[in-house]
Specification:
mainly alpha; two-stranded antiparallel sheet; 74% helix; globular
Amino acid sequence: IMVILPELVLLAGALAFFVISLGKAPDEKLVRSTALLVGFATFAAACLAFRAQDSLFHGAYVVDRFSQLFKLLIGFALALLLTFSRNHKDIESRVRPEYFMFQMLSVLGLMMMVSAVELILIFVALELSSFALYLLVPMRDDRSGVRMQMEAGMKYILFGVMATGFMLYGMSYLFGLTGTTSLAGITAFLGTGTPPPAAVVAVVLILGGFFFKLAAFPMHFWVPDIYQGAATETTAFIATIPKIGAVALLIRFLALPSGHPQFLVHLLAGVALASMFYGNLSALVQKDIKRMLGFSGIAHAGFIILALLALNGEGYGLAIYYIAGYVLMNLACFLVISTLSPQGENLRIEDFNGLYRRQPLLAFTLAVGLFGLAGIPPFVGFMGKFMILTSALRADQLLVVCLAAINTAIAIYYYLSVVKAAYTEDPEERPAVVVAPSVQATGLVLVAAIVLLGALPSRLVEYAWAVVQSML
């Protein structure tokens, strides 16, 4: 039981919400308290099972140091997200039990995904996570924007089905070539020499499905509309936790080919640069804060792929470090956004005017999150970008490094424009902001984590490297 304790907690939580949803008028306080309890229980279970190791279902489901590290990150992010988002009113109270049920099922799918080492199980876990997530997008209590959220939900599921089709087609190619769906068997086949053209096509198609989960180019078109159309807490979830699972999936899959296949290096370099330029240049002109963070997420997906470009343990370890920091920085931003819009209204950049005078702690939390995303020292975003660029330079990717550095400079402009509004603009009669003690505590935890991971990165980076080496 211990080896799958986090998964069991999430399954029990989803069943609890299902039972609660059967009532005619669910107690809203009970629903919110149960959500927070399940979130922290998931994190506690991930801590208790952190050192567990086993192989289940004839080797298709592996519990190892690699999977447990990602489950710990997912559990920690879920607990923080539920701490500051569970009390907001942008989800209709009558559907809140179903909302949390699908949210827990989505996280359960992610937990399964990081332990899956067999193509069919990867597909099942990915679809469990994705389809539960598709249903969260339309659940928004915003009468003025019903068309927006319904359109966002339709776009999300249509793009998701398309990405799934690409991925399944690629998986069928690999199965046809190798006669197995086990990642170990596929590794043995690909390690025998130069991969055949059909294997190259298969890898490209499967990566297309994974890039959808990470919101990387060219599977990024859904991002801005879904970020803007979904409820703020749903957007915060989509922007953070699923990307942890996507990084784990990419690392497991990219570790399959032996050596450094040139087609894979060129593919990853092209996707990384396209994601960075598209995301950063599009974010420059955004006025809606959630759309801006959506395009920002596309650009950061490029940096994560740049870390993977080295196709070695060092690069994979840096990707883990970067996604951990990225999730913390995004949660800090969404904590402020959700606190300023408890009714779920979308915020524009001018809505942050004078935030420092209205609520200094929120302004500071926002500044730390945005400084980190911009790559300004001493925050985790700076150290992550610096180490990734250094790693890519060692992999003889000088041109890619130069273009990535230019993108870092571009990103500073739109991140700091929000900080400028919060600290230098007139609040213009906007009211003071009341912040609950739990939200204040969450903000302080996020600020401390962003600073500490940036100032003292070595422990997490070294552990991530060791974990990846044990998996390779």
